[in-house]
Amino acid sequence: MLERIDTLAPLLAPNSVALIGASDDPQRIGGRPLRYLREAGFAGAVFPVNPRRDTVQGLRSYASVADLPETPDVAILAVPAAGTLEAVRACAARKVKAAIVFSAGFAEADEAGRALQEEMTGIARESGMRLLGPNCLGVFSPATGWYGTFSAMLDGTLMQPGPVGIVSQSGAYGSHIAHLARQRGMGIGKFITTGNECDIDVAEALRWTVEQPDINVVMAYAEGIRNRDVFLDALDLAQKRKKAIVFMKVGRSEVGAHAVSSHTAALAGSDAVFDAVFRQYGVWRARTTNEQLDVAQACARGVYPKSNKIGIFTLSGGFGIQMADDAEAAGLDVAPMPEQAQRELKALLPYASPRNPVDATAQALTDLPLMTSYVAAMLEKGGYDFFTGIFGSGPASPTFADRLREMLETASRTSVSTIMSLTMSAPREIVRSYEADGFIVNEDGTALMTALGALVHFRKSFDRAEAKKGGPEVASPVDLRAGPLGEHQAKKILSAAGIRFPAEALAGPGDDVGAVAATIGFPCVIKVASPDIAHKTEIGGVAIGIANEAEARKEGAAILARAAEHRPDARIDGLLISPMISGGVEVIAGVSMDPSFGPVVMFGLGGIFVEVLKDVTFRAAPFDIAEAHRMIREIRGYPMLEGVRGAPPADIDALADLLSALSRFAAANERSLDSIDLNPVRVFEAGKGVVALDALIVTRSSTP
């Protein structure tokens, strides 16, 4: 699928365009793209197609695609749904490389629309033509004047080019954030909306966008993901190339997820899995549209801090404390000024508070050299990666604004590597002027700290990608036989994949259970061995703490009797005997097949933590040991593994090995797997390893 990314160039960077259904009215859907192309000075050839007119908006019109003097790179189809199929046929016959379908009324509408969409897609694929849409708002790239869209957002003012990309399944949302970005003075480099995704999906669009050298950050919106491999490759490429992705993924709630399926016919997948995958690849998941814009604007310059140390300058102690709280919540380090620097500042203004936040008090308002000295000291001696100044309405004050600007310009010359940020309430032109000088500005201090925290988040993500020696080892698939697998078989298969289990023995029909148990040792555990009984405790199929041979014979017989009573249809292989193992920290691990991401590994603490608190996390398979360590540290119960109340630290390295091995096995066998459960798993103290006490493999052939 990745090789098809190259075929997007005719759509997203065309040299010639045909507009089928071109209108002489620049306000109509068929007229807007032509108007925008002309206003933007698109340098390529533009061919209006309208059999009822000789000219359209001053350009020669053609009766059909077949009549065009040359084959265009891309065709814009601004025709009703009923005429779209014929237009696609005409483009395919002319060997047009790509087409944009604006019209709605296809798969999102009803089954008849779905059938029409599938027929249209088939025609395009047979000819090699790429399709965007239907039911989309198109694309644009301001740097080249390419506007393949009918968005009314562009009425009056076209977009300025810049380092921000927008990739959205929803045309309305994509257009909305583009408009808001323009209001903030952000330039847009690439804009792509994918609509119904009959061919080109958000994964391909994202992958192409992060490849573009003029893009530093992408704002993305999706309701579901259709192509896992391309999507994950796009996230991986962005991380490696230091391109920030700020994602709005909808469908968090049950109601939202239902709306997704009815709106796009895309599977939303598990929201918790999306969260985990975004963490895995360093994507920032925005909670609100404003947050998405705040973070994208902070990332647009492509400048990231070396660490998370922040110095806060304020003229009011209360505002400073609030900002410090917000900074810590955003993962920033409000480190104190060095002691010597504090003493020097205290000497300048005895009643100031020079620790951090550095409060110069209202006295600094009337003493420009004093304020300059304070800010310069923070930049020169604080060792801060970020500087934040809290100035309220000061930058808009007729008596204070010029002095404040002079102070900041003078002081900031001392540290060009510090990321400068401000909170202020000022007219847009004043805010824009500060931003033009490299300041990150936000009226809301909490939002500003979130954006700065996102910069740290991306720096850590990019550093992880740089430190990687390559992906996880590729495991070889194994032959998982048809039908359900018993625990004994599952353990043998997973043992070969590198997962450790305790020694065990199978007492087959007619074997002396007591004698077999003696070879394992006492106390021991006896379980029914059956590929048809997945949850043995539910039928009384487990006995623990068996102390001797006689008890083993008695309990073994009782287990077989209960199995015959509750599951007379089940195949019984015998009784599985293993040693009693206690101690360590109980955890759970497993694999499930996510609708969007395929094999996904789950990890959490066992017992009440998973049953009641649901303290678990996920990763898309496969992943390496370093990622497994990050996964382990995400759960709320992680301190249990570090050792609490005198307990020794657990063998986290061995646990990470297990999770990575499980992920490689799952990825290698995803075509035949449905799920894996390792529960419980005991993690012993550091250096003593980890052991899974039970295993369940469910194959796809054994699920209904």
From TrEMBL:
Organism superkingdom: Bacteria
Keywords: Ligase, Tricarboxylic acid cycle
MF (Gene Ontology): ligase activity
Residue span, CoA-binding domain: 11-106
Tagged with keyword Ligase: yes
Listed SMART domains: CoA_binding
PANTHER family xrefs: BLL6376 PROTEIN, COA BINDING DOMAIN CONTAINING PROTEIN
Record's protein name: Acetate--CoA ligase family protein
Organism: Aquibium pacificus
